[in-house]
Amino acid sequence: MTPATSLFSPVEADLQILADNLKQLVGNRHPILYAAAEHLFGAGGKRVRPAIVLLISRATMIDTDITLRHRRLAEITEMIHTASLVHDDVVDESEVRRGVPTVHSLFGNRIAVLAGDFLFAQSSWYLANLDNLEVVKLLSEVIMDLAAGEIQQGLNRFDTSTSIETYLQKSYYKTASLIANSAKAAGVISDVSRETTENLYTYGRNLGLAFQIVDDILDFTSSTDTLGKPAFSDLKSGHLTAPVLFALEEKPYLEILIDREFAQEGDFEQAMILIQDSQGIQRARELAAHHAKLAVEYIADLPISESRQALINMTDYVLSRLY
Fold this sequence. Notes:
By secondary structure, the chain is mainly alpha-helical. It has one domain (4-320): Farnesyl Diphosphate Synthase. It is built from 17 helices and two strands. A two-stranded antiparallel sheet has the order 1-2. A hairpin with a 2-residue loop joins strand 1 and strand 2 (100-101). Helix 2 packs antiparallel against helix 3, helix 2 crosses helix 5 (68-92) and helix 7 runs antiparallel to helix 8 (133-155).
């Protein structure tokens, strides 16, 4: 498997600057919030989202260096993503993220919610200071989408009538919106054509959907150690993802088990057997591959560069996580 970090070689130095800046952006006026932020930004993670912003920035600024606004956009993108993870972990009652304790398990729910709010507020403040109304609109929409996705996920728990279209919409809100809108915003800052910014958005949308579908498959095929969070947590929480929705089409008894929320002894284990015995995981792989392939088509017109090639390779990397 290609490590994500080697994909990012054209922006390796940029990502180091980003890492140094993130903690400073949060500031140390609030010791607890600063400690929470330091814990979050020090917990590793692949920095995929800011890397995509930086790669697009470089791929659309071939003859000149990227600007401080490009860099700040990448930082804002990571802050928004991190804020959403803090809130997700509270809602999902997750004790571990990326193999380390979550903020709420270390500091309590109240501090975790406030830390997430603080990061959203900070990102909004830095966003406003970019003085670009279109970029402000794009990233503000992301924050709304994240909340809408979380609400939709909560309302659809254990709902076996959920369609693949509804699942993809929720996946867009929770994952792809940030990648798509920040990709487009990078193009706006680079002052590329309207057509190119729309293509960058569609690249990000499809890459984000592929990324989320792969994550949902890994929940069934990876260990807790590999995931950095408990395996099978989605199904246990009643979140029906692509492998389950496809399996439901061929395993009618699975619907009964889910509808009664695995209330009887052995229900969950039986559900897992039915999913593994179906084409659900394979069909989900095909869906992820479809969106990854679509993503590549939308950056074909960018000038040839190392950064463009890295953006293409990113689609292969997303799928390679399955094997």
